[in-house]
Amino acid sequence: MAERIEQRLEDRVPELEQLERVGLFTRKEVRAVLRKASALEYKIQRRALRKEDFINYIQYEVNLLELIKKRRARIGYSFKKDEIENSILHRVHCLFKRATGKWKEDIQLWLSHVAFCKQWNAKHELSKVFSSLLAIHPNKPALWIMAAKWEMETRLSSESARHLFLRALRFHPECPKLYQEYFRMELMNAEKQRKEKKAFEQAKMDLGEFSYPEEILNGEMARIIYRDAAQKIKGAEFHLAVLSIAKLFDFTEDLQKEILESLQTKYADDPLTWDYMARRELEMGPKQAAEQTTKQMKITEMTQREERCCAVFEEAVGALPTEDMWKCYITFCLERYNRKTNSQELKRKRLERTLSVFSKTHESNLLPEALYKQWLQLLLESSQFEKATEVAAAATTRFSQSVETWQMRLQVLIQLKSDAVTQCFEEAVKHVKSQGALPLWTLWVEWSEGTNSKEDTEALYKRSLQATTPAESATMKEMYLDWTYRNGGYKKVKKVFTSLCENRPFSLDFFKKMIQIEKEQESCKMLHLREYYERALREFGSTGSDLWLDYIKEELKHPQGKPENCGSIHWRAMKMLQGDLVEDFVSKYTLLQTGHL
Predict the structure, then answer these.
(1) Overall pTM > 0.90
(2) Which residues span the domain enclosing 544?
(3) Which residues, other chains included, contact 207 with Cβ-Cβ below 8 Å and sequence gap of 6+?
(4) What are phi and psi for residue 116, nearest 5 degrees?
(5) What is the pLDDT of residues 154-181, one digit of tens each?
(6) Domain boundary among 67, 86, 103
């Protein structure tokens, strides 16, 4: 091993000598590089190899390359790159090869090598990296797409990119994304060849041996890919994806028409098809010269286009009255309403249209639960408070066991300062199961704190402890303790704490809150703090390493503390803590003893 390391270090000598000779590094810096390289080499020559050692070595070499680049720019020296940079680049590639050979499954390691090759323009090396990567991970379509894109966009090789896509499709014959990117690549190739041919023609140059077949120029290869994919991949989503790609190219009118006809024929009952056909109306309309168009004409034209969209959507929900179809319609209306416009008339029409569609969907019993919130928001923004109250009530009738829907209704009533809030809370906790009802109880007590008397609020807190599940009652105990201190003072909170300690479970924050309250008192008693810490440790002693440390700190720092107790507390902590927490506790305790914590 030592001989191998010596040989590797000797191989570095020529590049380091060059660095010193041309003035990029000083002799001292060269020696430092050699020392660091030696340490890194020893780490990657051990029997038990670690991935982190390879990553650190690679990162060091990359940093070295960056430093050389900056030094070159500073002194304006650009020679001897073969002897310096290329030697380092070769070493980094070798390190990556060893690492990816050892940890073949680590995709991130492979991608780091790819990124390095791209950064340093190592095209030949990158081809080999992609070849090895795809041989080991042929099951990942994204890697095939990445390799094909690089061949097409960087190496300008449509043949290599096509070859990769065809190989990828043998592994993934029904992958929509692969077909989409293959389709895009062929259209990009057609566009590139069209531009080349046009440039030749404009220059009146003889095309000679260059041939530009019409079928390639017209995107026939993309059409073949689409037809093949359409037989294997079902659903409107794929058709719409390739259609959106085709629309990026100005020579694909016939291809777009074919895709659209296929979409309407095969997937007439798909909401996505109707959604596309409706939104298409936004793009269609008379083309007017910019100088002849007034602001009012633009608004009128946009209003007409949106009305045409809605006419298609109305036809759609008539032909396909499903939740998904109505959702598409509402989503469109919300998008248009949220678009900025200076026209108050257009804004008003969009709001009316959106609210009308919400109402129709609700009447059809097809409005999803999540959309009721947006409906209510619109009603409140437009000051339709009575309607908002009705809609909120209707939502809880339809989704009577949903905590979120009851919360939404209650928030509306609270916002409107309604007299029916208490009645609604009672109704909510009656319908919703106790498990999961915590958000309702927290909302109720928070509302009561600002509205009802202290007696009523305390009664509500006590009631919540019985009504919620044991796990959720721990949160209510914490809230009750905090409210009692704010409204009843120290003596009252001590009584409540003692009372609440009679029934498990507790949260750690429950005890921390009481400890904090005690520490805020002018006459803070260590006796009380010990009681709270001991209670907390009975519940959380096996998992709360920081709790033990805080207890020890109190004994050390409190005027009434007993530093002699710290030894026994430490001994108990070591016995109770589990797993890695023991090590964590020991390291923090050491820092505490040395005054660094």
Answers:
(1) no
(2) 525-596
(3) 197, 200
(4) -65, -45
(5) 999 999 999 999 999 999 999 999 999 9
(6) 103
